[in-house]
Amino acid sequence: MKLPAWIVSLMARRPYKVAAVALANKMARTIWALLAKGGTYQAPSIMTRA
Q: Per its UniProt entry, which superkingdom is the organism in (predicted)?
């Protein structure tokens, strides 16, 4: 699994556990927003070069 650029950058600057908590926080906020608004998760589309 490829990690997003923001988490790779954070892991370079902060301890592993801090980055793990940041990722868990982002995931929890995303899940809460979906449940609160009754939405469905749509994975971000991957951009490819033409």
A: Bacteria
